[in-house]
Amino acid sequence: MGNLSPHFDSTEAACHCGCGFDTPKCRLIVALEELRGDIHRPLKVNCLCRCAKHNKAIGGHVNSFHLTAAAADVRAPGLSLLALFNRAICVKAFFEGGIGVYPPWKDSKGKWRGNFLHLEIRDNPKHKRFAVYKGDSIPFSEALDILKEIERLKSSTTVLIGG
Fold it and tell me: Of 86, 75, 2, nearest to 43 (Cα)?
């Protein structure tokens, strides 16, 4: 039981630097609850609120929606990123807002990166879609192709893709 909603708590929303910024926009939490209910499983929040200092320290976008607590980076353990994307796009707030796809990849040290969706709510609908792979912007369609290939590989063999 969370203090923001039935399934989300301010500790999940808090900026990772410890500054105390932990209050996301209500519409974002409502949309996350809708997505969670649709997929019938918990969402793992990687990042929600982010202060300007922490955003700069991690190389976040200067106009990141995390700065106004209007974005969440999430994954759903046990559910593929493609399946999560296919459900997130059905949530009106995310469909009209922004959806970023970060396919999984290994960095030079062998550590898994990515493997999450960036979900935004916006006051003025933009239907923004973007993708980042290995730290670089890529065409959104290319990211979906990567996710489809991961699905194909997972169905043909047993492959562990990023935590």
Answer: 75
Residue 45 corresponds to which tokens in the numbers above?
């929040």
Helix, strand and coil in the chain, % to nearest 5? 35, 20, 45
Look at residues 125, 127, 131 and name the one whose alpha carbon lies nearest to residue 148.
Answer: 131
Q: What CATH topology corresponds to 10-156?
A: Muramoyl-pentapeptide Carboxypeptidase; domain 2 (3.30.1380)
Tally Cβ neighbours within 10 Å of residue 47.
22
Q: Quick one: how far is CA 100 from the chain centroid? A: 7
d(CA 24, CA 65): 11
Q: For 34-58, how does the pLDDT look when each residue is reduced to its tens digit (9 = 90+)? A: 999 999 999 999 999 999 999 999 9
| DSSP one-letter code for 137 | E
Strand partners, 106: 112
What percent of the chain is modeled with pLDDT above 70? 92
Domain boundaries defined on the chain: 10-156
Structure tokens at 105: 């990849």
pTM: 0.84
> What is the C-alpha to C-alpha distance for residues 70 and 8, in angstroms, rounded to an integer?
15
d(CA 52, CA 58): 10
Residues 49 and 23: their CA atoms lie apart, in Å, by 7
